[in-house]
Predict the structure.
Amino acid sequence: MPCKRAGFTLIELLVSIAIIGTLVGLLLPVVQAAREAARRMSCSNHLRQIGLAVHGFHDSNKGMPPQATYTIGSTFSGYSVHARLLPYIEQQSVHDRVNFSLGYAAQPEICRLKIPLYRCPSDGRDETRVDGGVEFYPTNYGFNIGTWLGLDQQTAQGGDGAFGYNMRHSFAAITDGLSNTIAAADVKSFTPALLDGGMPSAPFSRPPESPAEVLAYGGTFDKNFCHTQWVTGRTLQSGLTTTFPPNTKIPYTHAGVVYDVNFTSARVSPTAPRHGYRVVTSRSYHTGGANALLLDGSVRFVSSTIEQRTWRALGTRSGGEIAMIEP
C-alpha cells in the first residue's frame, strides 16, 4: 500500500503567508508606536536631567550659566550652556579638559565629542559636521534665549529669555516664575538656515508675526547649519527662540527644494557690531509637539497648536505675562 505524506498544499501555504503578512501589517504600527513612546520618554528624561543640572549649577555658582560670554569688538568663540553644565551631568572629566579662556575654536578635541545626554534617541543622524575647519558634534536641545533679539553687539547683552550672553542672573530675576518660563526644548540637528539676512527697520523692533515676515528679510542659505555644535554658544547652534510655536514651518525654496529654515539677521562681527535677531524654532522628532523643560525642572510635552502669544510669554523671564503649560 502506498503511504501518504504529511505536508502543506500550495494553497494552504499561500493562505498561511497571507495571514502572517496581515498580522505583521497590523502589529508593525503598534510596535513602532511603542518604540517611539519609549524614545519620547527617554528624550523627556534627558531634559529632566538637564533641568537638574541647571539647578545644580545655580546652587553652586549663585546664578545661572550664561548663554556665552562675549566682549564688544571681539571675535566670538564662546562656550555654550551645554559646556558649562558638564560637571552636573556626570561629565566632570570632559569639563576638566576645557579651557574656557581659550574658546572652543582652539580646542577641536572637545568640539567633536559626543555627549549622549544632549542627543534625542529619535534623531537618526549620528554624525559630525565640519565648520571653519573644526569638527563638531550636534545637539537636540536648545536653551531659551527669548522671543527675537539674540545679541545687542553694542552693549554685549542678550535678549529677554531665560539665558543670554554674559547673563549670570539668579532665579530671583525670573519674575514670571520658574514654572512659567521655558529653560530648554527639543530642536532638530542639521536644520537649514538663512544667515546674515536683512535687519528690522529700527532697533528693538517687534518680533515677526508670520514666517512670511521672516523670509522677507532674506539671507544666505546653508542646508545643514543649525544645532550641529553643542559646544558653541551661538543661538543657532545651542539655543532657541520662542518667536513661533513648536514645529512652525518657515518654508524657504532653494534650487527647487523647500526647506524648513531658521534665521539670523547678523552674526557676531568685531568690525560691524549690530543687533542680532534670531528665529530659531523648537522642532521635534516626536509627533504633535515638542518636549519643553521649564525652569522649575519639570518637563511638559507642548502641542504644536499652542497659541503663539502663550508660547512667547513662556519664553520671557520677566515679561509680566500670565502664561502656563497645563501638566
Q: What stands out?
A: The first strand starts at residue 129 and ends at 131. The chain has one domain: 38-315. The CA atoms of residues 50 and 284 lie 17 Å apart. Residues 38-315 form one domain.
